[in-house]
Amino acid sequence: MAKITALTKIILPGVAEEHTVEVGETFDSPPIQARSLIEMGSARNATKEEIDAIAAKEKAGEAEAAELAKIAEENAKERARLSADK
What we know:
- By secondary structure, this protein is of the alpha+beta class.
- 56% of the residues lie in helices and 21% in strands.
- The protein is built from 2 helices and 5 strands; from the N terminus they run E-E-E-E-H-E-H.
- The strands form 2 sheets. Strands 4-1-5 form a 3-stranded antiparallel β-sheet, sandwiched between helices. Strands 2-3 form a two-stranded antiparallel sheet.
- It is elongated.
């Protein structure tokens, strides 16, 4: 996949529904589609900084998901303990 940044609003067709990419949004695109969007002037290759920002956001999301899973597990244990006390 190629990482590209939208220079215009882009509407991508999807199987179930269309997906809209806003101006300035960086996203993954198959190489052929990326080349077409770049040639049309609708997108450009993402910079290293944009790619790094996406990676940081994904990492933060993964850390948050892990923290939420830990909280859910603790809550489940507490519910089990409370129902055992009854």
